[in-house]
Design brief:
The complex is a heterodimer of chains A (306) and B (315).
Chain A lengths: L5 H6 L15 H5 L18 E12 L2 E12 L3 E5 L6 H7 L10 E9 L2 E2 L7 H7 E4 L10 H11 L6 H11 L3 H4 L12 H14 L4 E5 L7 H14 L4 E5 L3 H7 L2 E10 L4 E11 H6 L4 H7 L5
Parallel strand pairs in A: 2-10, 3-8, 3-9, 6-7, 7-8
Antiparallel strand pairs in A: 1-2, 1-4, 4-5, 9-10
Helix pairs in contact in A: 5-6, 5-8, 6-8
Chain B lengths: L4 E2 L6 E2 H5 L6 H45 L14 H32 L4 H15 L2 H13 L8 H25 L3 H9 L4 H30 L2 H6 L26 H11 L5 H34 L2
Antiparallel strand pairs in B: 1-2
Helix pairs in contact in B: 2-11, 3-6, 3-8, 3-10, 4-6, 5-6, 6-8, 7-8, 8-11, 10-11
Classes of the chains: A alpha/beta (306), B mainly alpha (315).
The complex binds adenosine-5'-triphosphate (ATP) and magnesium ion.
Adenosine-5'-triphosphate (ATP) binds next to helix 3 of chain A.
Chain lengths: 306, 315
Amino acid sequence: MVNVTPSVQDALKGIRVDEDATTATDEIAITVPTAAASSTPQDEPSGDDLVFDVSELSVFYGDFRAVRDVNMKIRRNEITAMIGPSGCGKSTVLRSFNRMNDLIPTARVAGNLLYRGVDLYDERVDPVEVRRRIGMVFQKPNPFPKSIYDNVAYGPRVAGRKKGLDEVVESSLRKAALWDEVKDRLQDSAIGLSGGQQQRLSIARAIAVDPEVLLMDEPCSALDPIATARIEELMAEIKAEYTILIVTHNMQQAARVSDRTAFFSVELDEANDRRTGLLVEYTDTAKLFSNPDDERTENYITGRFG
Amino acid sequence: MAMATIGNNGAARRVEDEIFKQGRDLRGAGFRMVLLAALAVSTLILIVLLVQVLTDGWPVIDERFGDFWSGTLRSRSSDDALGISQGIAGSFWIAVFVAVLAFPIGISAAVYLEEYAPRNWLTSVIDIAIRNLAGVPSVVYGLLGLFLFVKTRDGNSSLMAGGITLAILVLPIVVITAAEAIRAVPSSLKEGAFGVGATKWDVIRSQVLPFAAPGILTGTLLSLSRAVGEAAPLILVGAITGRLAPRDGSFFGADQFFDRFTAMPIVIVGWVQQSGRDEGFAAAAGAAIVVLLAFVILMNSGAVLLRNYFEKKRG
Ligand SMILES: Nc1ncnc2c1ncn2[C@@H]1O[C@H](COP(=O)(O)OP(=O)(O)OP(=O)(O)O)[C@@H](O)[C@H]1O
Ligand SMILES: [Mg+2]
């Protein structure tokens, strides 16, 4: 039995959590990581260490089941990579972690997705609060048609913050390896940035609200090796404070940065002749890349995927 | 280099033969000519119209524009006090009614339809209905205004009746253009805002409306010039023409919204009718048309300028 701190209750406004429900953490532990936080993953995480507990998750678009059989336990302060061929549902799964799929009218989620013990799809959950806690960097850069400054300050502003924005903007841009390039033109339109700069701006915008979890959908696909390396460094730096899920097509990147890797694949659904994605294997990154259990994983990582 | 060759499959061909223009795009060129011709025809018609109106009205504008502007409706065209002040005042207030009624209601309805309403058969029906309403002939709106706002007031037509009728007339146009502008907001923008914890209201206020503003603005201003140029519904609602016009040309007055009124298109129609018995009215009508056209062009240029300004602002 664990106590429920106000932070969790804030996060999931309106949810009455039973006395004996699990979840919750010590606020301080989020900002000042304990030694255990960054240690090697245990096999059965529980309590504080378990951020997401996903079981038998499927995501549908209308009648079409885009992805099925997702079972994952996501640990706190770890980087989890999601890899797999195009169209296997990585983005779809990632977007279900912060209720971003709500914005697609046809999208529907089945199965269980617990965030620190609370069902994210409980109808009492406020998706806005979820997204303040679980930030997202999208597959395509999507700067707002505003100044660079206003882009980064947007999240803190909608959260009601008025003071100290300059500091937030600067530190977020620094973390995203963009500060030096834009510090003299913060008031210029973000639309004028290059694609790679825009992507780093999206990252700065996401970390400006100081989320607990960061969902990153191919954050480096438009970046040069130097900026990519900087983003990977950033992930390593902030790992102590955040829990990160990253979709990537770059297997070296997954191997470099992540603690655990989920391999997704696609299979033909005999019933309706459509390709449905599924989670094939989810385990320690080192193990997945050196000694995978599943033959399909092995084929994919060795480049034999058809 | 002129003799450079490509030897793909043995046959030597000069590069010039391959990459120089060879006039292959004949259909494209033809299509372009058709487009150009269409543009020329419409421009030509416009020019003929303008020349005609200007030559008709020029004497009035040239010789006595000040008096014409401040004058009122008269029974004889030779009357020195003949002028358009009542029409200008009426049209001004009609524009105000449209701006105050049709714009907020129309834009709000569009935001609701695009951002809040669920996508189901009911909203599709509403959508189609609004589109059909935009195509309904304007006389029908005049009939509606006549029954709703005039008959219920013992047959007294008023400026308010005319203004509301025209506001209703352009409402569907405002809704459609605003809805289209809102629909064109990229979903990635909205997702980006939602992704950092914005509420729906935040997203609409800070992303959707600013992005859609140029489109909404153009639509509303165009609908305004449409309303200002409409004659048919006003004739039905009963704008008074000719010597019956009771109002002076002042813009403000105690009872003016409930008074009888006239407007520029009505003034023009009236004078054209009277030009049969009194030729001098043709010149007056021409001059009035020039004034109305000038206003419409002014408003439309304003729309374009504002749109460009907002588009530049959004980057
Ligand atoms: N909004 C949508 N409506 C309907 N189907 C969708 C939608 N978004 C994605 N899909 C479908 O869901 C499946 C998974 O798509 P998803 O974008 O999650 O793949 P992905 O693994 O991220 O691919 P990529 O590596 O190319 O980004 C695909 O078959 C795709 O066509
Ligand atoms: Mg994707």
